[in-house]
Write a structure and sequence with these properties.
By secondary structure, this protein is an alpha/beta fold. The chain is built from 20 helices and 16 strands. Strands 9-10-8-11-12 form a 5-stranded parallel beta sheet, sandwiched between helices.
Amino acid sequence: MSPTLPQHCPSPRELDDLELLLSGALAPRTRFDDPRDPDALVTLDLPEELRGRAVELVDPEGLPLARVEADGSLTSLSHAQYGPFRRLHLTPAQARSSYPGRSWIPVDDALTTDELNRLRHRGAVVLLALTGVGTPRLSPVALVRATVAAAKVLPDAVVVAVPLAAHGDAAADARLRERVVTTYANGDPVWPLPPRAVEPTLTDFPAEVAEVVRQDRPAPADQGLVLFFTGLSGSGKSTLARALMDRVLEQGRRTVTSLDGDVVRRNLSAGLTFSKADRETNIRRIGWVAAEIARHGGLAVCSPIAPFAQTRAEVREMVESAGGAFFLVHVATPVEECERRDRKGLYAKARRGEIPEFTGISSPYEAPTDASVVVDTTGRSIEDALDDVVQALAESGLLDVRTSDNPSRVEPVRMAAAPSTPAAPAATAPVATEAPSALARPQRAASHRGGSRGAGRLTVLFVCTANVCRSPFMEMTAQSIVGNALEFASTGTEAKQGRSMDPVIAEFLPEDVQNRRFASHPVTAEVIEAADLVLTAETSHADFLTERHPQAFRKIFTLAQWTETVQGSDLGGRHLIEWAGQYRVPSTPEHDISDPYRRGRERAQVAAARITTLLQAGLPPLTRD
């Protein structure tokens, strides 16, 4: 048995070239790097360890397509089995056999009504849709859809799809295009369309074609978008990214996905090291996921260090090839300032040689030359630095999350302060406004609230699923810990009205609240709006609330996430909630308090003990002035 050949998946451009080589469309060229190719366009970039060896070329799903020998010659093994409009991908021989004597029209964009009118007198035609990477003005699938729709307008037209890729050399690509089209026509007339004097609008296309164009070329504000923050560790990129996400969620017009570097490493890239190769792999994974989000019209916010220009360019290419827009934010805070802020001591460890290849110390950071906006966060508040990004986004037409000034907003903590121990805002920082009265704020109809809202007291809302186990335990235990300094309530994402508290977990309530009456309540928009702080038992509850009440995102935390966030802060009360909304630690599965309902007394005791510990640490700071 012959040894198994190593496999290699070519790039999308190389796969397009491979299909044309194997089909005979590039004749007389029959291989990559063919000496008969004067323009040297059709090349194959094999990894160094595979050069000079026989290699099996496979598609992204691992289907063997061809074998390339050590001398460069190609042997066909199979052909692409799937893909949209695969039936229209004919070889030159198949096309000539099926459509002899027709005129051939190369097409790389949707055809306008005027262009179709000019083609009517050509008789029977083949519309040759050139779908390869970088060639069509539309996405490849949309080009074929638009061309099929255009063919219906003509008296006798068929469509053939050809994956002719662009290679970055306009003159050489034009010669290659002419060669491929001539091979397909095989002596039949070829009628290239003349260049357009002006860009067409949707009204210039037939209705069915216009609909394809409209879907494929959405307005910038409706386009899939990747916001990519890059900068040194400690530059403020993650903080700005989170603050921008808050703006998007508060606006409530678009869904958003966070691809923070640290979070992705714990999940998508678990197991990778911090070697240069693995760091670049991590960035490419982030880029691939972001591109898929953009492909479907979503918004992805990424905030890795991403120190190398080549990898950032690859991510940009992934996104733009998927039809998305790529907006690069360079958070250009100097390394001296990043090191001064260092909460985790990473820079000190890097200078001692304990962390090899640390960006900014022992590994370079290549500053972008293609950033959409550059922000230095030194000595600036979060909101001030964020305004640079928000303004640039609005000017680009991609996303407008500008807001009018809120006169009741507390002045944000300045980013120059170490986030773990921010200085308390000056007494004159907040703009003075009259606080709304208790009657002016929505009230929850609750039989178990501890009286009416005090004029200056904060209200903390606890949330679990059914509002009969964890959240009422949180509410009553909190009341025992801080008394009347704060006001508490609880609700449930799936709660029914008027159910009693689970008697099993109630056994572990503090003695001073054990005899309180309780009745469950479902969550409402009014309850969320009335609360100053919302603490949930699990991340799923927080996600549920954020999806339905995006404007409340900054005040929604899991209980464990809140407690971890505020440890070490000198702030208190509303200032603390404001600060925590900006500097929250990422939510993790470890923050969840497992549901003990109907799972036995031992599980209830564990949950009760954990809740009590978290409340004892997380509530007292709220009572500070």
